[in-house]
Amino acid sequence: MVGSFLNVVIHRVPRGESLIHPGSHCPACGTPIKPWHNVPVLGWLVLRGRCANCGSPISVRYPLVELVTAVLFAAVTWRLAGLSLGSAIPAYLYFTAIGVALAAIDLDVRRLPNAIVLPSYPVLAGLLAISAAWQHDWWPLLWAVVGGLALFGLYLVLVLIYPAGMGFGDVRLAGIVGGVTAYLSWSVFAVGAFAGFLLGAVAGLAVIAARRGDRRTALPFGPFMIAGALLAIFVGEPVAAWYLDLLGR
């Protein structure tokens, strides 16, 4: 259900449209979508990927966003519950949701809308503060603030040095990525910060190898930042431990 709403966010926010009015409708003919056709994933399968009224194709991205969101929600919940951080689950599900939306929007229009990024600062701050209060431990919240400021500052310096490399939307998103990763640990923060650059480099090499571009080809960086942060939530601790062990040999 959240994934279905994210599809609305992905389509309407870049266009400056309301998320409430009008209701879900076919972009081609404007016919309202019937409730039983709007069931996540299953609705698209029943319609065979076409509008019930005009037969226009419905992008496969719609069920994919719904399915990916469901899988990530389940995985993140399982991971944090395993770390005895159940109180932080709402914050990380929120981050996962906006991450899916921002990644798709950045791939579409090459920008990260302030309408999503900026309100996420107070929302995540509030959710993490509730988690810290529940755990009776305020240190992780302080780490989140420091981590957010640190990664924000790093990206700001990178943009000022090489403006063609990334945009200020990436800088604003960096504060969120730094905060949610540092709240868990500095190991998760370090791996999450590095993983975004690593994934971006791998994607760039893949584009060059497939002859779809060259070293000057611009790729949206937001999806790699989000993917790196989510990856760090799952493997940040063991990867950091492995790296430190490697350095100690």
UniProtKB/TrEMBL annotation:
Membrane topology annotation: Multi-pass membrane protein
Signal peptide positions are: none
GO BP terms in the entry: signal peptide processing
**One cellular-component annotation, GO:** plasma membrane
- Start and end residues of each Prepilin peptidase A24 N-terminal domain: 1-79
PANTHER family, alphabetized: PREPILIN LEADER PEPTIDASE_N-METHYLTRANSFERASE-RELATED, TYPE 4 PREPILIN-LIKE PROTEINS LEADER PEPTIDE-PROCESSING ENZYME
Q: What is this protein called?
A: Prepilin peptidase
Organism field:
Rhizocola hellebori
